[in-house]
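Workshop exercise sheet. Pairs work together: one partner reads the sequence aloud, the other fills in the structure field after running the prediction. Swap roles for the next sheet.
Pair: D.N. / O.F.
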Amino acid sequence: AAELITQAELLERMGLGPEAVVVLHVGGVYEDREAARARFAAAFERLPTVARHRLVVENDDVRFSVADTLWIHQRTGVRLIFDNLHHHNNNPEAMPLRAALAACLTTWPAGERPKIHFSSPRTEMVTGEQRDPATGRKRPTLQPPRWTNHSDYIHPFEFIGLLREAAGLRDFDVMLEAKAKDLALLRLRQDLQRYAPDLAGRLE
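Structure field:
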């Protein structure tokens, strides 16, 4: 007979270590941020242990900041993913980058390597559509970039800045979110060798 299992249970059965996680955002605010946080925490606590051990929560770019996810961690013990671009876009508490990064890293137990997400904002003009009031027809128009969108490559100086901010903190893995995929990683390695050779050795 077929058996329905969760993604978290599948990871467990595959024998993957604690670094194999499923990343979640908190979800909607529904006009009450505190109530939304509390609902998420209550739902998380009702999950089976195997699922809770595989789920992590990431700060998002519009609704729930690092401070919000830290509140949820304090309630549930869930590990946190720090996302640098989301932190720049959504940081109403004005939490310094190093403090936000350090706080997220400390939610991971000893012996587990924390993860963070890194991306750079897209800076190019984007092509959209606008309705011509005279004809009623849509026509292409250039629109300014949205700072929440991921760029094709990683801005090397932003990445170097993050690594320098992280000096003295525990080691962590970085997941790059870039539209050029592997090409972005290869280019970033070259850029680090050129602009920050003292940091290049930190990339495994």
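Discussion prompt: The chain is about 40% helix and 15% strand. What would you look at next?
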